[in-house]
């Protein structure tokens, strides 16, 4: 601020603001305030009206210059700033777009809050028509729009659950493992004696009748199966997810509506996976197909999801 009278001699009050024609700024006796007001004197009113007329004339000239430009032909590159009135800021959020038929400079007219991520149901890098994220590749969803879980997240959850159950089963089965190793040692001793010519050659299945090996082996299988059934059936029926599924950000629910599967659906899932995988000769092939089935199934269901009509959905983006 520059005034004809030294600032130090000014009394508090309103004084003409030389930086804004037609306005006054408050002087508190020590510093200039940020508060201004329209000037009350005839000279201030005239200066303010003149400034407003000049601004209106500049805007009219800018609009006239813009409308005289021909639209960019289809397929031709848009020159930077084309369709933008002279002096009008471009590539600034919140500014209105140029008139119809004019090319849009990069970033011009981007409104505040313009989406920076795909909407729910689309993977990173993709979105519906109109979103600048490339081809449309929607994620399969349930009838209510909840995204279905990827087969790889399901596999991760299965591995985590298998590791947890195996750890608990291993601790419970320690006495049976001791019996099995003892029987294996006796069988090896018989085989060594036969090799040295001091005893008969043991038969290929004699191990199962030596030192309680078969009973301990069946006990280990029974404990492993029982823990798997109790673990998966209880967690899915009550919470819709095992600890492994929770860690992977997925859960089990009915296909037709969201909710917990309940004991009936959870029991069918366990019967179709844990029990069916033990069927002699075909159990291993069935388990492999069951794990891979979500890769091509439109609902991303495994075989053990078909009978109970369950699906696995994402709980985290």
Structural features, described:
The chain is mainly α. The chain has two domains: 7-67, no CATH class; 151-314, no CATH class. Helix content is 42%, strand content 8%. The protein has eight helices and five strands; from the N terminus they run βββαααααβαααβ. The chain has helices at 42-67, 151-172, 174-196, 213-239, 243-248, 262-275, 283-292, 303-306, and strands spanning 13-16, 23-27, 32-38, 250-254, 310-314. The strands form two sheets. The protein has a three-stranded antiparallel sheet with strand order 1-2-3. A two-stranded antiparallel sheet has the order 4-5. Strand 1 and strand 2 (23-27) form a beta hairpin. Helix 2 (151-172) packs across helix 4 (213-239) and helix 3 (174-196) packs antiparallel against helix 4. It is elongated.
The N- and C-terminal alpha carbons lie at a distance of 56 Å
- What's the SSE pattern? EEEHHHHHEHHHE
Largest sheet: 3 strands, antiparallel
Helix count equals 8
**How many strands in all?**
5
Strand order of the largest sheet: 1-2-3
Given helix and strand content, the structural type is mainly alpha
- Strand composition percent: 5-15%
Mean pLDDT: 79
Uncertain parts: 89-95, 103-111
Give the overall shape: elongated
What key attributes describe this structure?
317 residues; mainly alpha; 3-stranded antiparallel beta sheet; two-stranded antiparallel sheet; 42% helix
